[in-house]
Amino acid sequence: MKLNLILCKSLSSIVLCLLLTINATAADTIIVGQAIDLSGPNADLGRDYVAGIKTYFDVINARGGINGRRIQYLVRDDRGQSGQAAKAVTQLIEQDHINYLFGGIGDDATQTVLNAPAFKRSGLTLYAPLAGADYQKEPRILLWRPSYLQEVRYIFSHFGKLGIKDIGVVYQESAATADAYRSLTAQMQESGVKLSAIVRLTNGSTQMSAEAARLALAKPGFVLMIADTVNAGLFLKEFRKYAPQTFVAGSSLTNLTTLRQLAGIKAVEWTVFSQVVPNPNVGSSAIQLEHVNTMKKYRDEPVSALTLEGFIAAKSWTRLLQTVKRGNQGQADYSVPDAGFDVGGYVVGATPNSRHLSNYIDIALFNKANGLTF
């Protein structure tokens, strides 16, 4: 009897020690989760975005964390599937007990996560997805990048300065592109740009070559593609047979590696893309220089616009973390200062009542060396 009592006390002590250790570890750790495409159609974008985020978190942890708390960064691969994104986020919330959630790629996946029951119950705010819709009616999202409408306006402004006022549109209708197309049509009406021709793509279309020829015959000043990267690449390959020197434009979320592989090296000449960060390969500002230097230190891979975007998004998040207020039901709200804040030469969060922290947009040209010229 005494032996059993002693054994029970010993086991109780061990369990208590384990629980205290677990609680102490949890108290010293900030768990950040993210579901993003790492092996699907936008894997190149996802891997670069994650690399930029992880690099900045590595910097913070090397400095001792945030107020002594280290960041544990958990990333799950949603394979570019919206249903898998919701499943992965549910696991992060219910099994990994994350404290904060970063977003994935595309409006379809983003909206699916916002609608997921586990996310709605969690009180979390979805932070910095690579998405282009406006989400003004969604209270639980904060985007780092500008909206697709802002990118379209900048593209129109760029070509307007060149005296080009007529456009050809390549549109692949889907849930992921619907908001982008609405933004495009609204901007066309606002700016007075003439529609020369529109091509509507469907997956596996046998009419792609004929549609490319028809668009080229209309002789638009430039062509804007609203399509996933695979269909955009296949169409561009056909279009270049008929219009080798017509400007073709795309958004910052075009997967340029995949586009080049599908369309061919020659086809991507005379293409331009909106970019939501400055040139990642130079150090003309403090944040650009910090990104280049820390990527060299922590990552064995080249920098890109997406590694820089992830880096700045993570740095912005650590600044916002100081402002988080938790409501009565555990909801975590980021409080953005009215005047915004500087992240190393760029002020973000200075637009009142906006769910987009950054308004920065630039244009980059795909050059003959298969890189971007800003």
UniProtKB/TrEMBL annotation:
Record's InterPro entries?
A: Leu-bd, Peripla_BP_I
UniProt KW Translocase keyword:
no
Query: Any keyword Kinase?
Result: no
Where does the Leucine-binding protein domain start and stop, copy by copy?
30-325
What highest taxon heads this organism's lineage? Bacteria
Q: Which family does it belong to?
A: Belongs to the leucine-binding protein family.
Protein name (database record): ABC transporter substrate-binding protein
What species does this protein belong to? Paraherbaspirillum soli
